[in-house]
Design goal:
alpha/beta
């Protein structure tokens, strides 16, 4: 589905060229839940934005379904750590944003937004404003907005890091349930997280980046049976194995 071929990204800072991502080759097949982990500053979020086409690579090529990706990938959607909801719009209007940007008819925008708000458990909060919602509800609204464009690929940038432990645990289960729902269009998820236990709980596969510039230090399948529990045999062993690869 997604192929990164020797992808690198550098930025300019006061006349200096600073490499952020260097020579990353990675293949993401359909129906996979992939987590990206690594030390702070390793370029995890940059790599996610490269996959989305939100920022161009300095070198290398990104392919989506076998074709070079040039510009924003309209078949993908992003969930941000900061929720990124517009405070002056209702929850319904926030979810409709991406649909209206694609010039869908008003009736279809309303229908899709209502459908996905119901899917994430916000059916009764369509007319609420973001300031009236808890952190978990805001992230549910952001998730509904991403799902409403019915993407093939869902990218998530530390989506649970700003939430309390109980809300994070509930949302992790809900995201896994949505990913496993064959009636929904999202088949592939790429998530950045700094919590190794979270990656092992959710992912089919964990990619570990090195310190900046980010390179792939390890690419590890997670073979623990689902649903997973931190008390499962082998869970701690898998977590420790990933920690050992982070340098």
């Amino acid at each position: 589905m997604l192929l990164l071929n020797r992808l690198s990204k550098s930025v300019e800072d006061r006349g200096r060229t600073i490499p952020v991502i260097q020579d990353v080759t990675l293949e993401v097949p359909e129906r996979q839940f992939l987590c990206i982990v690594g030390p702070s500053g390793s370029g995890k979020s940059t790599l996610l934005r490269l996959m989305m086409g939100l920022t161009p690579p300095t070198s290398g090529t990104l392919y989506y379904h076998g074709l070079p990706l040039d510009g924003v990938n309209l078949r993908a959607a992003m969930v941000f750590q900061s929720f990124a909801l517009l405070p002056w719009l209702t929850v319904q209007a926030n979810v409709e944003l991406g649909l209206r940007a694609r010039d869908l008819p008003d009736e279809e925008c309303r229908r899709r937004a209502a459908y996905y708000l119901d899917k994430v458990g916000l059916d009764g909060f369509k007319e609420a404003y973001p300031g009236e919602l808890s952190g978990g509800m805001k992230q549910r609204a952001a998730l509904a907005r991403a799902l409403a464009v019915e993407p093939d690929l869902l990218c998530m940038d530390e989506p649970f890091s700003g939430l309390d432990a109980l809300t994070s645990a509930n949302l992790r289960e809900e995201v896994l349930g949505l990913w496993a729902d064959l009636a929904l269009p999202v088949h592939t998820v790429v998530m950045v997280t700094h919590i190794i236990e979270e990656a092992v709980l959710m992912a089919d596969r964990v990619v570990v980046l090195t310190s900046r510039p980010g390179r792939i230090a390890a690419d590890m399948p997670v073979t623990l049976p689902r649903p997973r529990n931190k008390r499962d045999p082998g869970f701690d062993e898998m977590v420790d194995s990933i920690f050992e690869k982070i340098v």
